[in-house]
Specification:
Blueprint: H1 2-14, H2 18-30, H3 38-50, H4 54-66, H5 74-86, H6 90-100, H7 107-113, H8 116-120, E1 126-130, E2 133-137, H9 143-153, E3 158-159, E4 162-163, E5 170-171, E6 179-182, H10 190-203, E7 214-218, E8 224-227, H11 236-245, E9 248-255, E10 261-262, E11 265-267, E12 272-274, E13 281-285, E14 299-301, E15 304-306, E16 309-317
Antiparallel strand pairs: 1-2, 2-13, 3-6, 4-5, 6-7, 7-16, 8-14, 9-13, 9-16, 10-15, 11-12, 11-14
Length: 322
């Protein structure tokens, strides 16, 4: 039945149906129900955009803003987002208004109002520990940005996982009970891309070294018990992970709300706990000067006693992420 659906979708796409071209392009991009074919995905989405498809145009804006299947160019991304808004795509309209920090429906004027430099500028870092290095950034994100991120990712929450120790891949474990969602190239946006630039400015690491950005959620009683974010090369699978993808050298957390009790980030080996206000950020270096795992950075996400905790999580590798 799935193959029949795919054939019907391809037939409609060949006939020039904009919705079918857009859907087919997205499926081909991720391998959803069919083999991934990025080049064909771009062709489908480009044709849909040329035929006036707002959703496809917004997807091309995302490619430009993230540098996917083409060189990254934020200006091109904003131009495409403006076009998607002009084509009536509601999500692009809301995003352009948000990026411009304005209102109204003059999409060209709103595009010109977007201040990329302001979006990517980080407040100063306050170092709270030099060894291991831990920094705090008060007011890293605005309240509106925090709310935007929660709403953007909450519908895709799933049980959080950790790296397997015995083979490649991830697995659910008893010592981690919270949920998470991934900002992928299908469901991310330019807001997340620019916030990644802001993170990069604050820690001095370029975004190509960033893993997939994640939204984390902790309901009352949910936790992530004591763990390290580095990869300990003590099994062949983990040693291979480091060899192929590099070490996870840094962690950056943005606290998206503060209306909960408990839920601190606890570093018991150095006697430090942190609970940020909404919009504050915490980062820590997971390795020592030689690049080896620094076990002083073992930490736990303590459970909220009441209320829901939201975080934006960004891990950083020692080499660019493919």
């Amino acid at each position: 039945m799935a193959s029949d659906d795919n054939r019907a979708l391809r037939d409609r796409a060949r006939a020039g149906d904009v919705e079918a071209l857009t859907s087919l392009g997205r499926r081909l991009l991720t391998g959803d129900g069919m083999p991934a074919a990025p080049v064909e995905a771009i062709r489908c989405l480009s044709e849909a955009a040329a035929r006036g498809g707002g959703a496809a145009t917004a997807q091309l804006a995302l490619f430009a803003g993230w540098g996917v299947l083409r060189p990254r160019h934020v200006g091109d991304a904003l131009d495409l987002l403006q076009k998607a808004a002009e084509l009536g795509f509601a999500r692009a309209q809301r995003e352009l208004q948000f990026l411009a920090r304005g209102a109204g429906t003059d999409w060209q004027a709103l595009r010109q109002q977007v201040n990329v430099e302001a979006w990517t500028r980080s407040p100063p870092v306050r170092i709270v520990s030099t060894s291991p290095k831990i920094g705090v950034i008060d007011g890293f994100a605005t309240a509106a940005e925090c709310d935007w991120l929660i709403e953007r990712g909450r519908r895709d929450l799933k049980r959080a996982q950790v790296y397997r120790r015995d083979a490649a891949g991830h697995v659910e474990v008893e010592n981690r009970t919270n949920t998470e969602s991934d900002f992928t190239i299908v469901n991310a946006d330019l807001v997340v891309s620019l916030l990644r630039d802001r993170i990069a400015a604050s820690i001095g690491m370029a975004t190509p070294y960033f893993e997939m950005t994640k939204l984390l959620n902790y309901q009352p009683g949910q936790f992530f018990r004591l763990h390290g974010d580095f990869q300990a090369p003590d099994t062949p699978a983990l040693a291979r992970e480091i060899e192929v993808h590099g070490q996870r050298v840094m962690t950056f957390l943005t606290y998206l709300n503060d209306d909960y009790e408990g839920g601190e980030t606890d570093f018991p080996r150095i006697g430090y706990r942190y609970k940020g206000r909404r919009g504050d950020a915490l980062y820590f270096v997971n390795v020592d000067e030689a690049g080896a795992p620094d076990y002083r950075t073992l930490h736990a996400g303590l459970p909220p006693a009441s209320g829901t905790k939201w975080l934006l999580s960004q891990w950083v590798r020692s080499r660019p992420v493919a």
